[in-house]
Amino acid sequence: MPSKEEIFEGVKNALVEALAVDDDEVTPKSTLVGDLGAESIDLLDIVFRLEKAFEIKIERGELVPDDIVNDTEEKYVKDNKLTALGLAEIKKRMPFADLSSFEANPMVQNLSTILTVRDMCYIVEQKLNPQP
Amino acid sequence: MHWYWIDRITVFESQKRAEAVKAVTLAEDHLHDHFKFAPLMPGSLIIEGIAQTAGLLLYEAKGYKEKVVLAKIPRFTFYEVDVVPGEVLTYKVQLETFREAGGVASVRAYRNNKLLAEGELMFAHLGQAFSDQSLFADGDMLDMMRLFRVFEVGVATDGTKLLDPGCSKPKEEP
Q1: Residue among A45, A51, A52 whose CB faces B74 most closely
Q2: Which residue in A64, B6, B49, B95 could disulfide with B20, CB within 3.0 to 4.6 Å?
Q3: Which of B75, B97, B129 sits opposite A48 (nearest CB)?
Q4: A52-109, pLDDT tens digit by residue?
């Protein structure tokens, strides 16, 4: 089991390669979209790189639950905003994410913008050493 | 206009690797614009040909069920760019990752056995979310495989001949 520092280094390498950013731009607090300039397709690239680097599997929808985001039955999403039920489900499915700023205006298209480098490290840690 | 940027697939090992050839010829209209009296094969169309080769490998790996699109070029380097009519390029692709959402291939292009370009291409499966948006029809990729003669050279994961899924299996001898 790699240490937290080793996991951070591995995540940083994946982000540097996927997003063509400099090492020193990648800090635990950096957001992937806002600070590092990731686009939606880059998230897939990052997932592939993390899977290869750490020999783990990150399933579709684990970063951002797409079944909730793409809900068309107005159960989780209404007028492009997460409903109370949608928010509760997101909290359950994205326990790593800091949703405090997102909750004020839970526009569904902003959900992926809250992901940080620290969140990526958490996901990798959970995969390598699952905690209940 | 048909968007085919390889002529034939010469090696196709399911879930592993493929090779294709592209003969550059003055019969291609675009070469008369790129550039007039100085035809030069555009690098972007070399990448497209390589992507078609790798995309079909990924399409077959997913059981011909998912439409595949080039999603990102994380890394690509041209060492030479002076490809002209009369030359034959060979593209070699290796599938590095294939998952539910897509895959990654490491790729190389050669001219006369000399490395011309190399890089990494990332592909995404369009999936059900885009099933009603016809970037291309369901059978298009399979038709491309037939046109590029994949089933003449293809090898399945168990080492047997890769069969065209649209054709019935040959009857076994009694």
Answers
A1: A45
A2: B6
A3: B97
A4: 999 999 987 888 898 898 888 999 999 999 999 999 999 999 999 999 889 989 999 8
**Separation in Å, CA of A103 to nearest CA in chain B:** 26
Check CB contact of A67 with chain B, cutoff 8 Å.
Answer: no
Is this complex scored with an ipTM above 0.90? no
* Consecutive H or E run containing A61: none
| Interface contact A44-B71, CB threshold 8 A | yes
Q: Where are the domains of chain B?
A: 8-155
Give kind and range of the element (H or E) at residue B78: strand B68-78
Select the residue of B74, B101, B124 nearest A18 (Cβ to Cβ).
Answer: B74
**Do A48 and B100 lie within an 8 Å CB cutoff?**
no
Residues sharing a CB contact under 8 Å with residue B7, sequence separation 6 or more, in sequence order: B20, B21, B22, B23, B148
pLDDT digits (tens, 9 = 90+) for B33-69: 999 999 999 999 999 999 999 999 999 998 998 889 9
Q: Would you state the structure tokens that stand for residue B94, as one six-digit string?
A: 């290796």
Beta bridge partners of B124: B69, B102
Which one is the CATH code of B8-155: 1.10.10.10, 3.30.1390.10, 3.10.129.10, 3.30.43.10?
3.10.129.10
Domain layout of chain A by residue ranges: 1-59+115-132, 64-113
Q: State which CATH number among 3.40.309.10, 1.10.10.10, 1.20.1250.20, 1.10.1200.10 fits the domain covering A1-59+115-132.
A: 1.10.1200.10
Total beta-carbon pairs less than 8 A apart between chain A and chain B: 35
Q: Among B97, B99, B132, which would you mutate to test the A interface (most chain A Cβ atoms within 10 Å of its Cβ)?
A: B99
Q: Does B34 participate in catalysis according to the annotation?
A: yes
Torsion angle of the four alpha carbons B152, B90, B41, B136, in this order, in degrees rounded to the nearest 10: 40
Rounded to an integer, what distance in angstroms lies between the CA atom of residue B15 and that of residue B61? 5
Q: Say whether residue A70 is in contact with chain B using an 8 A CB cutoff.
A: yes
